[in-house]
Amino acid sequence: MKKSDARQLDHKTREAIRIRAIQRVEAGESPEQVIKSLGYHRSCIYEWVAKYNAGGIEALKTKKITGRPTKFKAEDLCKLYHMIVDKDPLQYKFAFALWTREMIQELIDKEFKVSMSLVIVVNKKRTPQLSGKL
User: Fold this and answer.
1) Can you spell out the DSSP letters for the chain?
2) Which among 8, 39, 88, 107 is least buried, having the fewest CB atoms inside 10 angstroms?
3) Are 18 and 50 in contact (CB under 8 A)?
4) Which tens digit of pLDDT belongs to each residue from 14-31?
């Protein structure tokens, strides 16, 4: 039988599982039995109990995951798109007439004062989003 991975569940579902588990423990059920029935590692229930004791139900609720802030605003991305599509590199005093990643990286640095790695400059995951926002 394959074990399920709770990390694949959405945040609200995991929050509900934590709260329900604590409610069962508060009702008198053994923490070991509760966590075993949920299929989690036994140390999880004790972490949840400690959080609950320190901050109540609020401590078990899902926190917003923010991530790193973007370096580039949507309007800057739109402006960059038009700079690349509407003009060729020679108009920006580059030595070659076809755009390269290095040229785009340099253009971003000059025009927007944002330094980006070559990997980020042409990220295939982001490319379709670029044309959809313009």
Assistant:
1) -PPP-GGGS-HHHHHHHHHHHHHHHHTT--HHHHHHHHT--HHHHHHHHHHHHHH-GGGGSPPPP--PPPSS-HHHHHHHHHHHHHS-GGGGT-SSSS--HHHHHHHHHHHH-----HHHHT-TTTHHHHHHT-
2) 8
3) no
4) 999 999 999 999 999 999
> Whose CA is closest to 133, among 83, 74, 79?
74
CA distance 47 to 59: 11
- 19 CB burial (10 A radius; 0-12, 13-18, 19+): middle
Is the model's pTM score more than 0.85? no
Q: How far apart are CA 92 and CA 54, in angstroms?
A: 59
Q: Which amino acid type is present at position 98?
A: L
